[in-house]
Write a structure and sequence with these properties.
GO terms for molecular function: ATP binding; ATP hydrolysis activity. Residues 31-149 form the ATPase AAA-type core domain. One of its GO terms (biological process) is SOS response. Keywords: DNA damage, SOS response. There is one protein chain. The chain is α+β, with helices and mostly antiparallel strands. It has two domains: 1-103, no CATH class; 104-180, 3-Layer(aba) Sandwich (Rossmann fold). The chain is 29% helix and 22% strand. The chain contains five helices and nine strands. It has helices spanning 29-39, 42-52, 87-100, 122-132, 145-153, and strands at 4-8, 11-15, 57-63, 66-72, 80-81, 107-111, 137-141, 167-169, 175-177. It has a three-stranded antiparallel β-sheet, with helices on one face. The longest helix is centred in the middle third of the chain and has 14 residues, at 87-100. The termini are far apart.
Length: 193
């Protein structure tokens, strides 16, 4: 059961229930992170947050059936709430929730995940993508050379590396796989009726 979403300003809290997968609008981010902590890979969550924000940790508190996301950072006297986090930090945490979910989809497509992220977050995100690819098929569409280098340079938790496929647009407007000739691809035929 996902529970009821209650909005308070820019922050959202979810009443009762856990979220095995984060909703598209991110309203249940705290619940999704709490689920990863409780039944998923809590060590990977801690490592991923620390890799992106050295010395930091995420905490999800529950009071009267409501989840609240807190980010503890070194040098601050108190943790930051979700309403105080930058768009880039929230976006990164949403990607963390999607990539570390204990019940991943069979296919996860990330369209320009580097948008709104600080450049220092691209390498940790690339490593996270490579790790997630050990559990599900991940397709990333990106214009960021740094993100692609991190994702293809890191071996996932299963020891395999990501494969990079570059698409190029011809003068005719046709999109092709770079370096692939007409006969290089697998044969394809119209299906029989």
């Amino acid at each position: 059961m996902r529970g009821r979403v209650v909005r308070a300003g820019t922050a959202a809290v979810v009443e009762s229930g856990r979220a095995a997968q984060c909703r598209g609008d991110g309203a249940d981010l705290a619940a999704a992170l709490r689920t990863i902590y409780e039944i998923g890979d809590r060590d990977a969550l801690a490592d991923t947050v620390d890799r992106a924000f050295p010395g930091s940790r995420v905490e999800v508190t529950e009071t009267a059936g409501r989840f609240r996301l807190l980010l503890h950072q070194p040098g601050l006297n108190r943790p930051l709430t979700s309403a105080e986090l930058s768009d880039g930090t929230l976006r990164y945490l949403l990607l963390v929730a999607a990539l570390l979910t204990p019940r991943p989809a069979e296919l996860l497509v990330l369209n320009e995940p580097e948008s709104s992220l600080h450049p220092d977050l691209l390498a940790p995100l690339g490593i996270l993508i490579a790790d997630a690819a050990a559990h599900t098929q991940v397709v990333v569409v990106s214009h960021s050379a740094a993100l692609l280098a991190a994702a293809t340079g890191a071996a996932g938790t299963d020891g395999t590396a990501a494969e990079r496929i570059e698409l190029v647009k011809e003068d005719s407007g046709e999109t092709l796989v770079a370096g692939e000739g007409l006969l290089d691809g697998p044969p394809w035929h119209w299906p029989a009726r």
